[in-house]
Specification:
The protein is α+β, with helices and mostly antiparallel strands and 297 residues long. It is 20% helix and 30% strand.
Length: 297
């Protein structure tokens, strides 16, 4: 006889949430339910370590959420992606270098924005007797991206492209082309503050290329690829990170970017890189308290 197999309905992992958390989640889902009527666009940022890089997990979560509540595109993508994402294709010129707050080459000033990474086509120059504008050579660099053939349907479809940048301290010209046709030209705002360059385009985007020309590169903090309304779900992977870098980032570029994205939920998926260093329960408690206090940042 065939042995009958029973499946337990008891979850392997219990979600711990207090009454205040339940109330916040209830309010969040009520907002989600109203998006198709309100036509609002909100953002969910999924942070994590190498376990989520390449848009693993996030791509599936995004598709399910956007199917139910609306929304298009892969959300916020890095200026120069090094993880070969499942949801978009990207390429960039050799002189675009990646700077991160969580490992590798770092900025002198921590003006990273919400992704904890930026791209630059020149080093950071402080104009003084050592570096003058006349001593610097004008450079050209480019970033190109487009939908991936293997992405989920919602991630392939978007009509808004927004570039996020800061620390533009000297005039930089940008030319945007779509399938090799020029669609926009602009000189970036050179007041060093956080700014966006938003373009609304036909839904069949193809390849979009940003070509930059200038003597001093701004920080390119990323690009938002999305629709006009619904949920933008962004994958922000930080290989080797414990997730405890946020208080070191500059608030004057971090907070305005959160607000521009209309961020309503932040998912933190960290811990694997910290476990080997926990000596006792107090280490675990301190690590958990960091994330608990992040809400007050």
């Amino acid at each position: 006889p065939i042995k009958k197999i029973t499946i337990s309905e008891i979850p392997v992992v219990k979600i711990q949430i207090n009454n205040s958390g339940k109330e916040l989640m209830q309010n969040f889902f009520e907002r989600l339910n109203g998006l198709r009527i309100s036509k609002e666009k909100i953002s969910i940022l999924h942070y994590g370590d190498s376990q989520i890089e390449g848009d693993r997990m996030t791509s599936y979560i995004r598709q399910r959420i956007q199917d139910q509540f609306g929304g298009n595109g892969p959300g916020l993508i890095p200026a120069n992606d090094v993880y070969n994402s499942f949801s978009f294709n990207q390429d960039y010129s050799d002189n675009f270098n990646r700077y991160t707050a969580f490992g590798g080459k770092k900025l002198r000033e921590m003006h990273y924005g919400v992704m904890g990474s930026v791209a630059r086509f020149t080093p950071e120059y402080k104009l003084d007797s050592t570096f003058t504008i006349d001593s610097l050579i004008e450079q050209t660099a480019w970033i190109e991206f487009g939908p991936s053939n293997v992405a989920y349907p919602r991630a392939k479809s978007y009509n808004n492209v927004t570039m996020h940048y800061n620390q533009c301290i000297y005039p930089t010209k940008v030319i945007v082309t779509q399938n090799n046709n020029t669609i926009h030209e602009e000189e970036l705002k050179s007041d060093s503050a956080y700014h966006i360059l938003k373009l609304s385009l036909p839904s069949n985007l193809g390849k979009i290329r940003y070509t930059f020309t200038g003597k001093i590169s701004p920080n390119i903090c990323g690009f938002s690829l999305d629709g006009n309304s619904g949920v933008q779900v962004s994958n922000i992977a930080m290989r080797g990170s414990s997730g405890t870098i946020f208080r070191r980032l500059k608030r004057n570029t971090l907070i305005p970017m959160y607000r521009t994205l209309n961020t309503k939920m932040v998912i933190m998926q960290y811990g694997g890189n910290s476990i080997p260093f926990f000596k006792d329960s107090s280490g675990v408690e301190n690590f958990a308290n960091y994330f608990a206090n992040f809400a007050n940042f």
